[in-house]
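Hi, here's the filled form for the chain we discussed.

Project: internal
Contact: R.S.
Residues: 176
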Amino acid sequence: MWGIAGRHYREGDFWHSQRHILSMFEVLQANFAAFRQEFPQENWTALVFAICYHDSTYIPGQPDNEEKSYEDFVRDFGENPDVKRMILGTKEGAGAVCDPVLHDLDYAYFSDAALFAQAEQGIRNEYMTFMKIPAEVYENGRRAFLHSLAGQEIFITDAMKPYNATAQQLIAGQLR
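And the returned structure, exactly as it came back:
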């Protein structure tokens, strides 16, 4: 399956790439027993597809990345309401309700300092490359995003809740 899904991702030093998807699977594998308690067994296949495709189209600042990512999935595998719900649920705002396991895997980079550093650099590279915005504008926007997460519970599953303290430390360090 990754041979099909992987072709949608860019090469280069970006976060929304195969590196992000691999990190999600690594966290899933490391916490599988705990996630298994929280996620319906019949939806595991849909979760795997949603992980592989949730950022298959990612252009910073575009409001329809999730819809286009689901279209990538449909072109490759056909309609699936569970995959659609999961992918569209990763959209920030607009009343989206993300699957808790997919949400926590998507934000797993907040659980580890090295992964967080890779993600921050990769996200910065995406914005600077594709949006061509001045560094100061990017930094202000990223700080606003991180401020919105400061003091919040980033992780919502029991499997990942223990990492909320680490996430807050990483956010605080980045905001200094």
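Let me know if anything looks off before we file it.
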